[in-house]
Amino acid sequence: MTTEQQKIDKDIAAVKEQEKRLILSEFNEDIAWKLGAYIRNIAADKSYPIAITVARFNQPLFYSAMPNSSPDNKNWLRRKAATVAHYFTSSYAVGLKLKKKGENSLSRYGLDDKDYATHGGAFPIRVEKAGIVGYIAVSGLDQREDHELVVQALAAQIGLDPEKTSLEYLTR
Predict the structure, then answer these.
(1) Which Pfam families would you find in this protein's record (predicted)?
(2) Separation of alpha carbons 113 and 84, rounded Å
(3) Least enclosed by CB within 10 Å: which of 14, 29, 35, 170?
(4) What is the count of structural domains for the chain?
(5) pTM for this structure?
(6) Helix %, strand %, coil % for the chain, to 5?
């Protein structure tokens, strides 16, 4: 197994662990706003040119486009969110699993690339006793960084140390 394949396997396992840990006790409009604002504050402090969305499926609850973000980021958010809605897992995990198979598109599975993106940055919002109810997504940075911003916000919301839920920490 190559070093690249080992890295992919480690990231897949780490994302699985993140999804197991990052479960909210509840989700509503106020929590959506807090999650989005948390990421927006980081983006403002670091001058990240990103777009952020938090939503129930088919109901946007938070959206923000930061300075120097691209109008195309909104389309990336939509496509990443569609991947979460279809697979009930993070867009990063879907992309990693494809990469492990030597693939980079969902078209082989009947899904059009104009509607789905397998780049990191969208993560399912899972609620205790309710399951997956929506998503949080970021677009504008490297896909791993987009993913990590989302994870950091969810960890902070439920009182976990964001550092100890990061890919970097979990893949050591």
Answers:
(1) HbpS-like
(2) 14
(3) 29
(4) 1
(5) 0.95
(6) 50, 15, 30
